[in-house]
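1st attempt posting a full record on here, be nice pls
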Amino acid sequence: MAKVGKKRAAADAKVDVTKLYPIEEAMALIKEVNTTKFDASVDLHIRLGVDPRKADQAIRGTVSLPHGTGKTKKVLVFCTPDKEEEAKAAGADYVGLDDMVAKVQAGWTDVDVVIAMPQVMAKVGRIGRVLGPRGLMPNPKTGTVTQDVAAAVADVKKGKISFRVDKFGIIHSSIGRVSFSADQLADNANELLGTLMRMRPSSAKGVYMRSLTVASTMSPGVKVDNKSFR
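the predicted structure (as tokens):
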């Protein structure tokens, strides 16, 4: 068994693994037990009572976090020439079509979000094998296939994130950084959880939100009382 360092052991000792913490208390604690020297990501892990194999229960969507994620996301836009300046003005980091398709085809994927206009999706589809496995393929359900590319870019830059349930029925999502206040983290968590509650499939049986855990990079996980969010 790997030896646990003193900092991590001290952090572990502060977390009661048998307790479900109210969301505000959990966010304050996750800041306290952070052991990294950098501004670590704070992630929420949500186990849902869904069967992702069923199309209507394969939860995916977007949410605009009130305080953003604390990370500036790099955005690539595939669009027609007449929309390039709009996309750039909105904050897109990379804009183009044939030239950018060729660049991605060659293996370049140094971006966080890819947005595309509907009329260029035939060309973007050619690089689906590169974008798909990295979770970068534009999709109408997440608002990344749209005619209004400028608005989509602005949303991402302001804190709009995408989420999707994995094959185990769990959603993993960043809700900020340890430099955020506990209130800011709680606000972001509440926004995400509220969105998920509104998306509950009518076919999902039993308990929908089964467990919540918040953790920062290399910190112990803190279990959250799923009845405590607003």
